[in-house]
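Methods: example folding runs. The two proteins below were folded one after another, and each record is reproduced exactly as written to the output file, sequence line first and structure-token line second.
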Amino acid sequence: MVSRLGMILVVCAPSGAGKSTLIGKLRAEFPDMEFSVSHTTRQPRAGEVAGRDYEFLGREEFAARRDEGYYAEWAEVHGNFYGTPRAPVLEKQSRGVDVIFDVDVQGAAALRRAFDRAVFVFILPPSLAVLAERLAGRGTDAPEAVRKRLENAKTEIARADEFDYLVVNGDLDRAYDAFRAVYVAERLRPARRPGLAEAILGSFSASPR
């Protein structure tokens, strides 16, 4: 049986662009995909579960692991540390498991250096005005925090061309169709099925004449 290498799918977006919703829909349709559980020093939000959404660590513990080279990437975002453990990702990839990442642009740049053949997708809002409405409508941030997120969004969007694919999330269904198409197409790359063509060619010689 020909083995399959798992895909590393890295997804980035400015806060409020709908990244979490799109990732949730993709994982619901493809339940064998696994989420890369990052470590963070921020406090859990309502509904988040330790070990499922994040591993929540103190700053000292995070710093110790960071200094040991435990993380494939790490960054400080909005005053908190976030990091991706390296070993679990490589183990899943070797077993043919697809792993999806939800990181910021700094994390994506580090993951590009850490993992070969990873796929990078950037989710864009249709406009900054729409993004501002979404952030304000969430009701979870003070006005000053919303302004800071919008300023960060401008910086992040300026780096969108570093990614392999761009998906504009104006209409959720259309955005998901595009996001899904990226994932399905990338699964078909020859590099993810090493030896497949050779195995089929080998079956020709074994077939009865």
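Second run, written to the same file directly after the first:
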Amino acid sequence: MRQRIIFLLSVAIVSAGCQKKASGQTVAVVNGEEITAAELNDALSKNAPAGANTKEARAAVLQQLVDRKLLVQQAKKDGLDKSPEFINQQRRGTEDLLINMLVSRKVNTTDVPSPADINSFESSHPGMFGRRETWTLSQIVYPLPVSADVTAKLKAAQTLDQVAEALTGAKVQFQRSTRQIDTAVLPAPIYTQLSNLKPSEAFIVPGPDKAVASVITERQPNPLTPEQTRQVAVAAMKRDQVSNFLQDRVKGLRTGAKIEYQPGFEPPKK
């Protein structure tokens, strides 16, 4: 009996010690789950509107965190954290986070480009810098034709009217539209190709199931200030460095990796 009393007393002491309290770095406890000051400060920095009263904003954001905890707890009670959808999305989220951290480490350790490198980059991307413009495009959107003859006629079309004639003759429905595009978003080779088109000369961009035929009807200069130019150039150069880094890293990792595919899921042969 004495041993049983001691055991029960020990359990009571341990249970009391495990009960979490809203004190110190714990600003709230929701059904036994803590909300820490670090969580609150992080949420406050992201959600509080500029100029909001700090005390009122802190209280409002804390209530949002409490509601969030309650919803998460209910989802777990419903077994959603055991569902295949949750497990797949959780795995994908973890993978994305790790890849982003890998990229961030590369970006943080990359040297700032030299002035000579920046000037060279700007010269090789005229559509983004020295000759940056806003283009107005007149467009025709149409489903990809099945007939090879129609495809050949569209390929031979020089103007948007000829594209429309070819589609009308083949009884292919199409839509006309107008849009603007900043030449800064175009890859340098594409910009060079399009900027050298003759007036009213059409170009066609095919997609998975539709194609878009366009003509540049207006070109407006859209220059950057010297400060903006340098910022955009450095950012673009870093993006290129990260892209090249990832491609090279994946290529190297594939060389030393053991990858097995179920029959029918192999990658297509080059």
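Comment on the second run: Residues 226-256 form the longest helix (31 residues).
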